[in-house]
Amino acid sequence: MVWSRTNQLIIAAAERLGARAEALGERHTDYFLRLVHGDRSAIVSKTRSPFLTQVAQSLANNKHLSRALLAARGIPTVPDILIDEGDDPRGPAAQAMLAKYSRLVVKPNWGNRGVGVTTEVRSLKMLARARARARALDLDEEVVVEPYVAGTNLRISVIGGRFAAAAEVQRPLLVPGRRIDEQVAALNADPRRGSWTTPSLRAMDQLEPDEDLLAHLRLHGLGLADVVPEGIEIEVTGEEVEVIDRSEVVHPGWIGIAERACAWLGVDVGGVDLRGPMSSFLREPRLDGGAAWLLEVNVLPALHLHALPTQGAARPVFEAFVAYCLQLPGAPRVCARVGV
Hints:
This protein has ten helices and 16 strands. Strand 2 (about 35) and strand 3 form a beta hairpin. By secondary structure, the protein is α+β, with helices and mostly antiparallel strands. It starts with a helix and ends in a 14-residue tail after the last helix.
């Protein structure tokens, strides 16, 4: 039986806590585990807890609506516009956003690990093409358009409503001057990258150019054998090039924002994605966002980012997750649903 990296980490953490994790049925499925400790048991779906409601999951997955609700509570969320299936992707709202920010990002409103995300959108023509790609991958054929935010990603993970860890997540960039396939090969040569076919406890995954990346490149008129034109950088969304533990340096104000965002959306175990210069996260947040913004709250957080950072201390997030799901003594109680 081959378990994914996430489930391998859950199983090992359970053992360290004197618990066990076991398959749920006779046929192997990586989507569920049963955690058992004495007379306590809980079924988890990777890093989804048994206490997450369908309403909370659906609300958090809706980028545009969850952002609007959090912004109304004073959380500095990235500005965006929603383009529904009947909307003109070259209409006044899109024109105004492009004129104001010049560099845009287009995403499915219901996102999944950066799939269908197009960066470096600088024209209405490309926005329309990126919209078609994102729309085809969205649950409701909805697309969000937002400004490109310079800087890096900060992931703050919350377990049982409490701060668990923070990590700076640097994404791979395809830059001018070298063929794209050469850049991908260089990234994949990093010994810290594992394989999807044989999951291991490597910090990062291999880049798969035959999947989402090719579709992203085609929107820029590029293929794997091409060189990125001067003046642009193509960010490979959903992948990492460095994961740096920042748990002890993030300003408490940003930690509070992450905890409140999860609570208001009803998410008990979440990964809060923020974007901006790392220096912004070392000081008090600005209510207007300034250079840093909250992008989204993930209900299936990649806790391995904290357990297997490429730089800095590993954090015991999987032990915290198992203890919370089993409600072991000392673990956070099931967090109350505050609601927005």
